[in-house]
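Letters spell out the chain; backbone shape is given numerically. Take this protein:
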Amino acid sequence: MTPTTPPTASAGVDTEVTRAAQLDCAALSDALDRLSIAGQCHGIAPRDGKFRMAGRAYTVLYRMAAAGEPGSVGDFIDDVDPGSVIVIDNGGRTEMTTWGNILTEMAHRRGMAGTVIDGINRDVQLCIDLNFPIYSRGHWMRTGKGRIQLAGLQVPVTIGGIAVHPGDILRGDADGVVVLPKARAAELLTIAEDITAIEARLRQNLRNGMRMDEARTQARYHHLQSPDYPKQP
């Protein structure tokens, strides 16, 4: 018998991003907890609960502009690879925006996976109409033009208290956004897939009439996110 060769990923397909897209943020959050990695972006929420997103981070850092300094909001968009998540650190500022309808249209047309902002955006209706995922601290109409200035591209940033580096995987769903550090992504994905499978079996046992306490004990449900999960009896 001729030995078979394991299938390989198609050229250009990021298998880790594909796997992340099939998992919900809750399972990924539990996987992060199990490995004691901080990756849950606090206070960052989707502008529409139907938004779903997964991709590699392209990071953008803003600072407050000096008086009379020309703005540069959004001038980076042409250099971002399709499939990326644009990750914008505006220091959590909610008194001015970093993103609006022109950037939404451009990002959508160029095939970006979504945008995550530690700050706010405006022109929410267009992102909903286009189903272009935007996650932020809120929305308001006051522009950032003339108020903020580009401070760095593809540099480490902070989103919802979580460090994000270029190339990290960001996954977003109705619950918010999680960050999978590039160096630990494979390990996190495997754990999250295992947690998802365990919870699926638990739900099936409940549908079959098993008591909740028995089903949870059998699944070791209360320890799924624990760093010592494998050591539990």
